[in-house]
Design brief:
mainly alpha, 6% strand
């Protein structure tokens, strides 16, 4: 099986494609120009094709680069969606844990829930006291 594409390289690729400059891409990604250049070179080697035409200080996508960009945008968007969804789950879990009296984890939350549920459900072996009808004195 061929290795999957690295998200950091895809991010460098899409940023460079959008900005058309290694300098601007590096600045936006908080990387050095050299790091962006290495990421692009490694991606081109992995895919065995040129993704950019270098035109002095500017770059332009090749046909292969334009094809990859279509996929890379969808891949990065799907990764952002996954992160957002998991963040939402974490926030909802944190709210539930706070409601459970400050439980620290899902496991602790489940234990608190089971304990509370067990305490509120009468045991079949324990019979409530019978209330005798009042007698006349």
């Amino acid at each position: 099986m061929k290795p999957i594409l690295d998200s950091r390289k895809l991010l460098a690729f899409t940023t460079l494609a959008r900005l058309g400059s290694f300098t601007l891409a590096a600045r936006e990604l908080f990387l050095t120009q050299s790091a962006v250049s290495h990421a692009i070179r490694a991606l081109e080697e992995e895919l065995n094709c040129r993704l950019f035409e270098r035109l002095g200080r500017k770059v332009r996508l090749t046909y292969a680069g334009r094809q990859l960009l279509l996929h890379a945008d969808r891949i990065l968007l799907a990764m952002q969606d996954a992160r957002s969804e998991l963040e939402g789950l974490r926030r909802r879990r944190d709210k539930r844990l706070q409601a459970a009296g400050g439980a620290k984890s899902d496991t602790e939350f489940q234990l608190v829930n089971k304990s509370a549920s067990a305490a509120s459900t009468p045991s079949p072996s324990i019979k409530p006291p019978s209330i005798a009808s009042p007698t006349k004195l």
